[in-house]
Amino acid sequence: MSSNFEIIEKDGAGRIGRLKTPHGVVETPTVMPVINPNLRIIDPSEMRNFGAEILITNSYIIYNKPELREKAIADGLHALLGFDGPIMTDSGSFQLSVYGEINVENAEIISFEQQIGTDIGVPLDIPTGPDVSYEKALAEMTTTHERLKEAREIVEQTRIGAQSGEKKRGDDMMLAGPIQGSTHIDLREKSAAYLSDLDFDVYPIGAVVPLMEAYRYRELVDIIVAAKKNLNPVAPVHLFGAGHPMMFALAVALGCDLFDSAAYALYAKGGRYITVNGTYQVDRLKYLPCSCPVCVAHTADSLRKAPNLEELLARHNLYVTFEEIRQIKQAIADGKLMELVELRCHSHPQMLGALDAVFSHSDWLEQHDPAAKSTFFECSAVSANRPEVLRYEMRLDRFNLFGTALIRSYPSQKDKEYDNILTFKPPFGAYPVELDENYPFNAEVRDVAGPESLKKAIENTIKLIRQNPNAQFTFVKGRRLNQFDDSYFEELKTVCAVLEKFED
């Protein structure tokens, strides 16, 4: 039901959006703090103080505990939790993945979610973990699809009935359609395509927590992209179980809109202090590298000695979580999301591997990335694989040059002797000097190009020269390039004259 979701800003495949729910509009990307109905380390009524607009809890836990179930049925889910904003409920799939079986049927839990007034309900899907056989993943995905189709029909019948009779709690419940398929990419693609045709309100990508726990971020990237390629581009996507801010920017850049975090509480219980660059054991901290209210009010030593340490850590973890969400939103608004992704991915070696995986999908990213932004910043070696560089390569055939052409890095007294002047700027390559101040050629790049950046620039330059056989090209290496071995320029020498430098 994509009409519930409006995209207002874009960068990469990431976006700022507005998700309309029965209990209000939620701005995405955002995190849904997980609330355990049995154990609340922070009262849900306080969650807005941290930046939370939507929560997620477990309908199966509520259903299975008589006193919780009775109160939820009588007063509604929002009264039970003490939160007046949107609430999403998981169906018991987590318990199914842990214990292998649960004592509720799919239709039962969907009806219960409606009965208690859930804003976004989740059917009882089967979360198939990584590395299972293809046959097992296919069988469980098929069962999941059957259950999701059943849930879709239940919700539709309720909506039809509500139009002709008295409205009751849960008539307008939105429905999530979890995408499964384990680590088999073709199954993830098929699952997303099938569920897209059923038209769900939100599309969670399920059963990826084991990948994140094992730092298998490269595979996570491929799974997200497989799902995104086969969904309606305006469909809101939820990355189930993603709660560490270290990887939010990466997932948002790939088009994920919602995350859920139990990490703030689970990490606090284990004495762990979250930062965007990783996690620390509070016992090992000498300083608190944060300016949230908790950290401003404590030293590392006084925090450790606090009688309510677990609660304080949970609060800090939430502050850091939502600070990163706001940072990501600002990066999208500024057209700087990909730069933020590059910076964040340098926090862990496996995140660097994920960055390589992201740019292996540059052709897909380029289709979603806005064509006009402010300034391209070269942040690392892999900046040469960014969508902007690929887009320029794809558009080289738009140039039609005749006569003599000079390719150089700096203005020269020789410029006036040539019919065409082109600037050479890695990682893009050569382009007409008239474009110097236009995006993306107004890029801020290293004074001395890196090998990867130079290689891409030379490849694009050679392609440009070969597409313009009616021009005679001269390439001037200049001082920026003199330190590079001649082997970098061997192929370039076959298509144009290469000079060390002009003597001014």
TrEMBL record:
Substrate binds at residues 125, 207. GO terms for molecular function: pentosyltransferase activity; zinc ion binding. Its cofactor is Zn(2+). Keywords: Glycosyltransferase, Metal-binding, Transferase, tRNA processing, Zinc. Transmembrane segments: none annotated. GO terms for biological process: tRNA wobble guanine modification. It catalyses: guanosine(15) in tRNA + 7-cyano-7-carbaguanine = 7-cyano-7-carbaguanosine(15) in tRNA + guanine. Residues 13-349 form the tRNA-guanine(15) transglycosylase-like domain. Pathway: tRNA modification; archaeosine-tRNA biosynthesis. The active site is at residue 90. Its EC number is 2.4.2.48. Zn(2+) binds at residues 290, 292, 295. GO terms for cellular component: cytoplasm. NCBIfam families: arcsn_tRNA_tgt (TIGR00432), tgt_general (TIGR00449). Belongs to the archaeosine tRNA-ribosyltransferase family. Exchanges the guanine residue with 7-cyano-7-deazaguanine (preQ0) at position 15 in the dihydrouridine loop (D-loop) of archaeal tRNAs. This is tRNA-guanine(15) transglycosylase. It comes from Methanolapillus millepedarum. The gene is qtrT1.
